[in-house]
Amino acid sequence: MLRNSLSAGLLGLMAAQPIGRVLLTSLWPARGVYADFSHCRRVCRRFRMQNGHTDPEAIQENFHSSTQRRPCDYPVLFWLQQLALESDLAVFDFGGGIGQTYFQYAPLLRPGAITRWTVCELPKSVELGRKLAAERGADRLHFTTSLEDCAGHQLFIAAGSLHFWEKTVSELGQRLGGFPNHVLINRSPMSRNDAEFITIGHSGRFATPLIVRSRTRLLADFSSHGLRLVDEWTVDKWRRLPLFPKLDAQYHGLYLCRNRAMNADHPATDS
Known about the structure:
CATH superfamily: Vaccinia Virus protein VP39
Helix content: 25-40%
Largest sheet: 7 strands, mixed
Oligomer: single chain
CATH class: Alpha Beta
Strand content: 25-35%
Number of strands: 10
Structural class: alpha/beta
Number of helices: 9
Strand order of the largest sheet: 4-3-2-5-6-10-9
Number of domains: 1
Distance between the termini: 31 Å
């Protein structure tokens, strides 16, 4: 135990200094901490790890894994059902792959509740998603590469995708032309000590840079757009960095709204 404490203390001291972070990252690049997304991408290329956001095989794998319902999906479904009972919904799905969030949730909502579900994605996912929507006859599922197409939607959802946005959440809102009145975030990593840092998300031969955000800054950015927190839940998923033990990050989900009071009947849920 003493040895573990000494090791953790030494790692903490090294990680607190810029040169120490560089050294620790060089020892284990796949679990390192980077100054920016560009540096992170260069490391991925150096180790010949392919971009999981543009590889058709990775896109298909993500679709199949994301359509399997997980405990953390139930808070999202709860709020979708609540909103769908109040009015019809047009949903803007940021980073929604080839439609996996739509195919998971839409069949469980009241008939006709979704008037339009727009997935904003990279070109390859848009191409594959449009093909899949046509094959399945999903005429309310649409795809775009433009954030500006968010106009006219009542709900913004980012399921497992917000941490791939390279800039601040406030800047994302500006690019959207303003967030809709309702925002659902799921499976987004937040650091234990409120730090923000960039690391590598990888699965097999695929790798993608991602940002672990500060919860405090995240909520402040949403607040600057008039959105306040209504509900929050934890996800049974962690991003572990063994050489940076103070930067372990758990994944979270959030529901934010402009005009809804805190819901006392649906407390934050451990998933």
